Amino acid sequence: MKHDELEDHCQIEALISAISGRWKLLIIYWLSQGDCRFNQLQRNLGRITHRTLTRQLTELQTTGFVSRKDFKTIPPHVEYSLTPLGQSLLPLLYEMHQWATQNADKLPEPKDLSKQLGR
Fold it and tell me: How do residues 17-61 score in pLDDT, each as one tens digit?
């Protein structure tokens, strides 16, 4: 592998690591619809646990894709939104959606894939 190819590979690996996981792209999708409070995100995502959503949001904040705004009110009011870096992922996300739609008949059902992967 040439040096340029190796460097490109490392950058792609960093991106995949930053957005990998069951929930991160879905969180980015919901935040692309507008700023969202924690409980609303949890409702939108369905079966995600409080702990998992907290961890995924923290990781997305650490990588710079999501920002958290604390309004310092009682009761607490916190909203999450996409940063410009997070918004720059949207074309990629929409391309992935188009690909998945076009190839839906070739893809396993998520529950079948989980069984195949031993989850």
Answer: 888 888 999 999 999 999 999 999 999 999 899 999 999 999 999
Question: And the tokens for 52?
Answer: 């998992």
Strands (E), 1-119: 36-37, 66-70, 78-82
Residues 88/56, Cβ–Cβ less than 8 Å:
no
Cα Rg of the chain, angstroms: 17
| 28: Cβ contacts below 8 Å, ≥ 6 apart | 19, 60, 65, 66, 82, 86, 89, 90, 93
Contact 40, 78 (CB under 8 A): no
